[in-house]
Design goal:
The complex is a heterodimer of chains A (117) and B (107). By secondary structure, chain A is mainly β. Chain A contains no helices and eleven strands. Chain B is mainly beta. Chain B contains no helices and eleven strands. In chain B, the strands form two sheets. In chain B, strands 2, 4, 5, 6, 9, 10 and 11 form a seven-stranded mixed beta sheet that branches. A four-stranded antiparallel beta sheet of chain B has the order 1-3-8-7, with no helix packed on it. The chains are: A mainly beta (117), B mainly beta (107).
Amino acid sequence: EVQLLESGGGLVQPGGSLTLSCATSGFTFSSYIMNWVRQAPGKGLEWVSTVTGGDDSANYADSVRGRFTISRDNSKNTLYLHMNSLRVEDTALYFCAGGSTWNLFYWGRGTLVTVSS
Amino acid sequence: EIVLTQSPATLSLSPGERVTLSCRASQSVSIYLAWYQHKPGQAPRLLIYDASNRATGIPARFSGSGSGTDFTLTISSLEPEDFAVYYCQQRNNWPRTFGQGTQLEIK
């Protein structure tokens, strides 16, 4: 059974940092394209970042580029999102999602990040 | 950035009815459009990928069509568990983008 479990969310002050993790099982993580997608309160889904399975190349939404870094540890089957210089508008439920192609076949239930003073 | 516009924003229907949701792209995304279902407190679920391919385990009442800029998701006969928010998403260009969603409500 495929499982994705996000963790690391919480309350952080504006300008602060946080690292999210996504522990996975049930599929060949190292070959999967992995993503972070977020949903702000009362809003729709917003793509945040993608990292490939082979060469670890990454892409970012303009809203997070330069502040967020996606990474993966294939030995631990875990995806990360390192978030710096957090803003109030980064407050959201963060989902990890992945697939053997560019489609988002598998999703977790999300971890909540709240940026507030 | 490719903007995806979904219509309508909200639909109120009864179980057993047929429904068609629309997603229009601001420029061509070829066939690289997916549909997701999302219920509160749950993980989003991939329904359709590459415009018309049903994901594993998705019932046959869900179907997708379209190419270029105009796409539709059809549910042939609504079941009670189908009431949710539906999103389209393109993977043809960076940044990946989602539509704003269509809320499907029970009438």
